[in-house]
Amino acid sequence: MRWVNLTTVDDIFQAQALAHALEEEDIPCIEANENTAVLLPHLRQGIEIRVKDTDYLKAKAISDKVEALRLLRCPRCHSDKLKYQASEEQPLKKIDVIKKLLHFPLGNHWLIYRCLNCNLDFKTK
User: Fold this and answer.
1) CA 53, CA 27: separation in Å to the nearest integer?
2) CA angle 107-124-113, nearest 5°?
3) How far is it, in rounded angstroms, from Cα 89 to Cα 84?
4) In whole angstroms, what is the distance from residue 66 CA to residue 19 CA?
5) What is the spatial distance between Cα 47 and Cα 57, in angstroms, rounded to a whole number?
6) Confidence at 49, pLDDT banded by 50, 70, 90
7) Are the C-beta atoms of residues 109 and 56 closer than 8 Å to each other?
8) Which end of the chain is more exposed for a tag (fewer CB within 10 A), N or C?
9) Which one, of 124, 37, 119, lies nearest residue 88 by Cα?
């Protein structure tokens, strides 16, 4: 029995949601690259979710259900046809500097997407 990569997700919230869904079905999982993805989100490395090879098929079905619920959509026309444009950092405030010194995630990083249906540019965290 070995650990295999089930999927790679963009942020810690997706990783934890999927890990929770898998654990509810008694499927153990490992979150790899979690620290790098949280501390350096601009690298867009992602968090790998790994499961045992014997649990892969069941875990894949659960992952697909979680992903279908999570799909990002345009706020104007609700289309799922989106293109990643860029990322943007907000200016640091004094409290952000303190958080950084204490190793708290800052949460001041935005991703910019363009809807291919209505050409709206919008930001998400």
Assistant:
1) 11
2) 140
3) 15
4) 10
5) 20
6) very high
7) no
8) N
9) 124
| Long-range CB contacts for residues 85-92, cutoff 8 Å, separation at least 24 | 85/112, 85/113, 85/114, 85/121, 86/111, 86/112, 87/41, 87/42, 87/44, 87/111, 87/112, 88/112, 88/123, 89/42
Q: What is the distance, to the nearest Å, from the Cα of residue 107 to the centroid of all Cα atoms in its chain? A: 13
C-alpha to C-alpha distance for 122 and 125, rounded to whole angstroms: 10
- pLDDT for 28: 95
Amino acid present at 59:
A
Classified as helix, coil or strand, 107 is coil
Helix (H, G, I), strand (E, B) or coil at 46: coil
User: Over 70: is that where the pLDDT of 105 sits?
Assistant: no
> Quick one: how many helices (H) and strands (E) in the chain?
4, 6
> What is the rounded CA–CA span in Å between residue 112 and residue 125?
9
Pairing of strands 29-32, 3-9: unpaired
Q: What are phi and psi of 9, to 5 degrees?
A: -110, 165
Q: Please name the helix (run of DSSP H) or strand (run of DSSP E) that holds residue 49, with its range, or none.
A: strand 47-52
